[in-house]
Amino acid sequence: MATVELTKENFDQTVSENPFVLIDFWAGWCRPCLQFAPVYERASEAHPDLVFAKVDTEAEQELAGAFQITSIPTLMIVRDQVAIFAQPGALPEAALSDLIGQARALDMDEVRAKIAASQPGAQGPGGPASGTPEA
Fold it and tell me: Is 59 exposed, middle or buried (0-12, 13-18, 19+ CB in 10 A)?
């Protein structure tokens, strides 16, 4: 699958309609970004079932700001609308492949449970359902 160019107009739709999205935040003037681009493109060809997307941080400054991107390239992985990975730096091909494997192996129910437990006011097992006031 070809790499998808993300903008603020198509970002939400792309992430909500696809269960696994890798996002490369980059800029044309960034040498490490340009070095990472072919590695990212080869990974997209090796994993045609996943969505590989790019955000040009120069053209989409609002989007980059919303995700607090301060260093590029930054790779983000979103599974089931949950950002499970975000890290700056160009990855070597083997590291990117390993990372994709780890992200595929995650139990998203477990991830969501951990996120819910870390929220302020979270109840442990047996507590009231979220949003339900205690009696």
Answer: middle
| Given the residues 6, 21, 30, 63, the one annotated as active site | 30
Distances (CA, A) of 48 to 1, 16, 29, 63, 77: 5, 18, 28, 25, 15
Active site residue 30: yes
33 is catalytic: yes
Whole-model pTM? 0.85
**pLDDT digit string, tens, across residues 50-89:** 999 999 999 999 999 999 999 999 999 999 999 999 999 9
Two tokens at 54? 């790019």
